[in-house]
Write a structure and sequence with these properties.
The protein has 932 residues and is α+β, with helices and mostly antiparallel strands. Helix content is 48%, strand content 20%.
């Protein structure tokens, strides 16, 4: 019943597409598509190749023209400089007899083959010159007493001997010629306008330079001329495709030279005067059309200020154009134009396109014929297989099909003949299924590996994202923190304003700390954090940390005690920045989680030894104890994990939870381990030991002077060039340095920095690295390649946190690298180091002035009458006394009372001075006892 139904269904099934059509049509379409696509790609790639070739050709031609012009046009100024030197040194100038100068010019003319004329004109109408006429003959000119001051021209041979030719020009006066008047007014070497020669109908250009005697008196002008026709001769030697052209024009549109036989001027009927030819009036269609297109595109030629590659349609044909400004800094401002027709390169490509179309048609016909033959060969045996399959479907399993000729159809026939072995084939299929499952397991394993690679890639992308976000945040922070530091120095601000400025500075610094924490944890995860060891004064380092944290403790009205357990080393070698980061983090946490009581910070030496290179090493223990909220045992297990915070919601809202994780990693890199003990509700103890290498170098205590009392400097180097594309960055540095006496010049990019440095001649350059037009790296390299600025001081300043940016800046030639936001103290240190200057501070009245004011009684207080606290406890008090901050003086005096009752008389003395506003007496008293 089932077999009959299936047979009926086959009979009723809708008519399908014939196999012959299925075989022929796709085959034909594939051949046609392949040939057509190949032809289309060939045409497109050909056009792309043409664009690339023409671009390279235009660039190369412009470069060759630039090189030739620089070489050709620098000679006149060199000749002028040599002539001026010779006139001064050998006394060639004699208005009564210009013969010696004329002979000298003839000798120079033989030395410089590219010069067409050399001359001198003086204030008394005297004149001497030597040069070539259009026919190649050499002439010499003279106007002096011997010619009754009438311009006389004589033709000479190659040895300088006069021939029969002679002519005079009574009206010729060099003093009224443009080249003379322009040089006299300018007072320096320059080019003059392109002009017609006085003695022959051709164009030339002259370079002139004023001549002064040893007393600085103006004597005349030396001029060296060039035939512009030699530039055209060079342009005609250039091969620019089959019909390409090149020409040079002034900004006014007048032709200077071209690669065609067309003259860049029009002679009048009498052939004595010429009229300059404009490019848009050229008889050469390619030059005229190109000039008109440039005017339509830019408005006028003066708007073209950079190298441009363009294309336009002229008479139905595409033309490729490159226009490039040419300027030599001495007055020349030309445009070099190269134009190449697309047709020069497309002729062969179009022929190939026609051949491709013909091949496509032939391939279509051939594919159709082959498809029909192949379909007949295949469909006949398939028809027999179809009949056998119908018989098997009806239950006649004894059918045997024989197919010869085609392997695939023979295999199919064999399959029909093996239907009786279905069970065995079933198990074979099961084994195949198992094999497929194994392959899937392998594929899944491979997918997991790929997922791991993707995760690593995402992690790297995260690090790069964080670094880029850091750059974007550091840039505005540079302005915020910069101006906060400047306003802190302003002595006219009120106490309320000072508080506001300090809040701005603290908030900006806090944001910067958060950014650095996130970057540090990213470096730790990528195993890229490194230590940068240096030698520093250890005692001063610890005191600096203590003073920073003491202020925070006072703001919370808790005690802060710093205890030195024994003698600390003077200088050690370690990563000062990272060690400070660890201590500030641990002390900051202790203060943050302590509401009552206080924090005790102990530092002491616990052992000594030697390094592998016999250098002495000291084991120092850092011990931080607080009376804060403490931690439960389960919290101690995870406090060093990233983004983990303890305490109530108020405390958790402060910070990122990265501080302890970063601190533990840094201490481990230094060879130590942070240990913690804590009792919930009573407080915590953090401690760690570090073995630090001692240094025999004497490192003095840092100066108490800061930028807050800086007023100026001693030194001669004061010119600084700022190169940055962001105005706020430049304004911050300018606002800070100009009041100190520095002269500031600004540039918005590397190219502008190069240009302004020539006129400004800076002593030091501070440059950003990432800028438009030209970045700081390229500018630094060009400065180092310049003979004039190869030794100038270059300071790189960037908000980038990538280490390779710092390395690349050094390789480009920078002397130092300042990270943004720029810290004023770091900037001052760099300026002092490289400019070799000495800072001037607004110091308080010294001890001698105190004697003169009648304060001898205060200075005679004996140390035995008062118990003087150690100097480490008096630093903040002494600084407050120096700047007259009475409020801080009172806070420090009250703090000393709480530390030790023996300091009570000393503290009361300080409070008495503060109460009476006796600032001079207070300062004299402090200077007597500070440091004892």
């Amino acid at each position: 019943m089932t077999l009959i139904a299936s047979e009926n269904e086959l009979a009723k099934s809708p008519q399908k597409i014939p196999l012959r059509v299925v075989l022929v049509v796709p085959f034909v379409l594939q051949i046609f598509a392949a040939v057509g696509l190949t032809g289309w790609l060939s045409l497109r790639n050909g056009k792309t190749a043409v664009n690339n070739v023409t671009s390279q050709l235009r660039t190369e031609v412009v470069a060759r023209i630039n090189q030739q012009l620089n070489t050709y046009l620098e000679t006149p100024h060199l000749v002028n400089a040599i002539s001026v030197d010779a006139i001064r040194r050998f006394g060639l100038w004699n208005p009564e007899n210009m013969g010696s100068m004329r002979s000298y010019f003839f000798w120079q003319l033989k030395q410089f083959s590219t010069v067409s004329y050399i001359s001198f004109g003086g204030e008394r109408k005297e004149y001497a010159g030597a040069g070539y006429k259009d026919d190649g003959s050499v002439v010499i000119e003279i106007t002096d007493r011997s010619t009754n001051f009438i311009n006389t021209i004589v033709r000479v041979d190659r040895e300088g001997n006069p021939t029969q030719f002679k002519e005079t020009h009574p009206d010729y006066d060099p003093r009224i010629r443009p080249w003379y008047k322009a040089a006299k007014v300018a007072g320096k070497p320059q080019w003059n306008k392109i002009y017609q020669y006085f003695i022959q109908p051709s164009l030339g250009i002259s370079a002139s330079q004023p001549v002064y005697d040893k007393n600085g008196t103006f004597r005349g002008v030396v001029s060296t001329d060039l035939f512009l026709s030699k530039i055209s001769d060079f342009l005609q030697t250039l091969k620019i495709g089959r019909s390409g052209k090149t020409f040079i024009i002034e900004r006014s549109g007048l032709l200077v030279a071209s690669s065609t036989a067309e003259q860049p001027f029009i002679k009048t009927k009498n052939s004595q005067k010429t009229q300059r030819l404009k490019a848009i009036e050229s008889s050469v269609p390619l030059i005229k059309g190109t000039a008109q297109h440039l005017i339509e595109r830019f408005g006028n030629f003066t708007e073209i200020d950079s190298n441009q590659q363009l294309n336009f349609i002229l008479d139905g044909q595409r033309e490729f154009v490159q226009v490039s400004p040419f300027q030599d800094g001495l007055g020349l401002d030309w445009l070099i134009v190269v134009v190449v027709p697309e047709a020069d390169f497309m002729e062969q490509i179009n022929a190939n396109t026609r051949s491709t179309i013909l091949l496509c048609v032939l391939a279509l016909v051939l594919a159709t014929l082959l498809g029909i033959l192949a379909s007949r060969w295949i469909t006949h045996p398939i028809f027999r297989l179809s009949q056998a399959s119908r018989a098997i479907a009806s239950g006649q399993l004894n059918q045997k099909v024989d197919v010869n000729g085609i392997d695939e159809l023979a295999v199919l026939a064999q399959s029909f003949n093996q239907m009786a072995q279905q069970l065995r084939e079933y198990f074979a299929a099961l084994e195949n299924t198992n094999a497929e499952l194994e392959n899937r397991v392998e594929e899944r394993t491979s997918e997991l590996k790929e997922a791991k690679v993707a995760a690593d890639t995402a992690n790297n992308a995260k690090s790069e994202f964080l670094a880029n976000m850091s750059h974007e945040l550091r840039t505005p922070l540079n302005g915020i923190l910069g101006y906060a530091q400047i306003m802190e120095r302003d002595k006219t601000t009120t106490p309320k304003q000072k508080d506001a400025i300090q809040i701005i500075h603290q908030c900006g610094s806090h944001l910067l700390t958060l950014i650095n924490d996130i970057l540090d944890i990213s470096k730790i995860e990528a195993s890229k954090m490194e230590l940068d060891s240096s030698i520093f004064n250890f005692s001063s380092f610890v005191i600096g940390v203590v003073e920073m944290c003491r202020i925070r403790a006072e703001e919370k009205e808790i005690t802060f005690s710093y205890q030195v357990l024994n003698q600390l080393p003077n200088a050690v070698k370690a990563d000062e920045k990272r060690l400070r980061q660890v201590l500030i983090n641990l002390l900051g946490n202790a203060i943050k989680f302590t509401e009552k009581g206080g924090v005790i910070f102990k530092v002491g030496v616990t052992g000594e030894g030697e390094d592998s290179d016999q250098s002495p090493r000291t084991k120092i223990r850092f011990h931080i104890q607080d009376t804060g909220i403490g931690m439960a045992p389960e919290q101690l297990e995870k406090i060093f994990l990233p983004f983990e915070q303890v305490g109530n919601s108020q405390h958790k809202s402060e910070g990122t939870g990265l501080g302890l994780a970063i601190a533990q990693k840094i201490v481990q890199m230094m060879g130590g381990e942070i240990k913690v003990e804590s009792i919930f509700g009573q407080g915590s103890i953090f401690s760690f030991d570090l073995e630090l290498t001692q240094s025999s170098e004497f490192i003095a205590h840092p100066s108490l002077n800061t930028s807050l009392n800086l007023t100026g400097f001693k030194g001669n180097k004061n010119k600084i060039l700022l190169v940055d594309d962001l105005l706020q960055n430049k304004n911050f540095i300018r606002s800070f340095l100009e009041p100190l006496g520095f002269k500031i010049m600004e540039g918005c990019n590397g190219q502008e920095g190069l240009n302004k440095a020539i006129d400004f001649q800076p002593d030091l350059i501070i440059t950003d690295l990432v800028m438009p037009v030209m970045d700081g790296f390229e500018m630094s390299r060009r400065f180092r390649q310049s003979s004039e600025f190869k030794d100038v001081i270059l300071i790189a300043s960037s908000a980038s946190v990538f280490e390779f940016d710092r390395q690349n800046s050094q390789e480009a030639g920078c002397n130092e690298f300042l990270s943004k936001p720029i810290q004023v103290e770091e900037l001052l240190e760099v300026l002092k180091k490289y400019l070799q200057i000495e800072w001037i501070y607004d110091q308080p009245a010294d001890l001698a002035n105190a004697h003169q004011e009648g304060f001898t009684d205060l200075l005679n207080v004996q140390s035995g009458e008062l118990v003087i606290p150690p100097s480490t406890e008096l630093v903040a008090l002494f600084n407050a006394a120096r700047i007259g901050d009475i409020e801080v003086v009172e806070q420090e005096a009250n703090r000393l009372k709480q530390i030790d009752g023996n300091y009570l008389p000393f503290s009361n003395k300080i409070l008495q001075f503060a109460k009476n506003f006796e600032e001079k007496e207070l300062l004299a008293f402090m200077k007597t006892h500070f440091g004892k």
